[in-house]
């Protein structure tokens, strides 16, 4: 397949590009700062005139573009988080609609944050969106992707936290444990929906060629855990104690508004992937962490 990937140079995108290329696909990456022969410069907020040609023969488009949410949520950064997802998706969709032969498939990033704070409620693709900043962002983000129209199969990748030691959230989460000060956040009862990065890449690749995978797709492992379970498991794998909780008030002082989202969490299940036969390599957290941090 000829596949165009926007946001293909980040933590998840680089792993996905490597996987798809090894699988025999032809990959073109849209990026602000091209460095390799398969990379094309794009301005997600501007005119697509200089890069729209890469969509002419594309079979599929994967949109992973978006600024990191793992920074203090100032007003300016919240606008960047919003615009980097909403406006870039709108630009990409409009470009797809402008070419004579539209790509048959669009896989568009989303996140489990769309479900909002739901306690221990089991959440599947059939669950309604929730409330809060990330939920509002998710609704609008998915709306922009679906605007491509019914002639293109759209998969909305509602990803959990992807785990790997090469980037993402896990190295930051593991750092306190390495200094013997690790523990749960606040009560530890909030749910943590996760996925090993290898399973994330495998599911996205699988969704490219699985016609039944359309609409929302929870890209999460089938066994979400509480934050307390996460802390105990990570401590056990790293051979460190996990007894020093991080008070919510301290978290709010350090990272601000984002703390409110972190101490709620979502208990998300990949019901659609399970029903369509996707096979997880790492369905359990401890096995995933032991692969990432071998003894």
Describe the structure.
This protein has 295 residues and is of the alpha/beta class. The protein has a single domain (2-292), classed as Rossmann fold, CATH 3.40.50.720. The protein has helices spanning 11-22, 75-98, 133-146, 170-178, 197-209, 227-238, 248-255, 258-262, 271-275, 285-292, and strands at 2-6, 26-31, 39-41, 60-63, 105-111, 122-123, 153-159, 161-163, 191-192, 194-196, 215-219, 225-226, 267-268. A 7-stranded parallel beta sheet has the order 3-2-1-4-5-7-11, with helices on both faces. A two-stranded parallel sheet has the order 6-13. A two-stranded parallel sheet has the order 8-10. α2 runs parallel beside α3 (133-146) and α6 packs parallel to α10. It is globular and about 60 Å long. 43% of the residues are buried.
Quickly list its features.
295 residues; alpha/beta; Rossmann fold
Question: In a few lines, what is going on in this structure?
Answer:
The protein has helices spanning 11-22, 75-98, 133-146, 170-178, 197-209, 227-238, 248-255, 258-262, 271-275, 285-292, and strands spanning 2-6, 26-31, 39-41, 60-63, 105-111, 122-123, 153-159, 161-163, 191-192, 194-196, 215-219, 225-226, 267-268. The protein has 295 residues and is of the alpha/beta class.
């Amino acid at each position: 397949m000829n596949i165009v990937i926007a946001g293909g140079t980040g933590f998840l995108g680089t792993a996905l590009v490597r996987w798809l290329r090894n699988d025999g696909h032809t990959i073109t990456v849209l990026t602000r700062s091209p460095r390799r022969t398969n990379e094309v410069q794009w301005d997600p907020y501007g005119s697509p005139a200089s890069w729209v040609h890469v969509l002419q023969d594309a079979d599929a488009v994967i949109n992973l573009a978006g600024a990191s949410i793992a920074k203090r949520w100032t007003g300016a950064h919240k606008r960047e988080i919003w615009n980097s997802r909403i406006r870039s998706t709108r630009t990409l969709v409009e470009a797809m609609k402008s070419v004579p032969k539209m790509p048959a498939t669009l896989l568009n990033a989303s996140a489990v944050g769309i479900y909002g704070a739901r306690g221990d409620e089991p959440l599947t693709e059939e669950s309604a969106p929730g409330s809060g900043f990330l939920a509002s962002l998710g609704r609008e983000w998915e709306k922009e992707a679906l605007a491509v129209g019914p002639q293109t199969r759209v998969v909305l990748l509602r990803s959990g936290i992807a785990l790997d030691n090469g980037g993402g959230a896990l190295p930051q989460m593991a750092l306190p444990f390495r200094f013997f000060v690790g523990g749960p956040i606040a009560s530890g009862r909030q749910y943590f929906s996760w996925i090993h990065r290898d399973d994330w890449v495998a599911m996205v690749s699988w969704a490219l060629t699985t016609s039944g995978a359309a609409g929302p797709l929870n890209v999460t492992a089938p066994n979400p855990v509480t934050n307390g379970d996460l802390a105990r498991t990570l401590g056990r794998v790293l051979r460190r104690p996990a007894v020093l909780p991080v008070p919510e008030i301290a978290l709010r002082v350090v990272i601000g508004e984002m703390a409110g989202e972190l101490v709620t969490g979502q208990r998300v299940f990949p019901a659609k992937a399970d029903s369509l036969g996707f096979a997880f390599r790492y369905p359990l957290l401890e096995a995933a962490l032991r692969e990432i941090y071998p003894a």
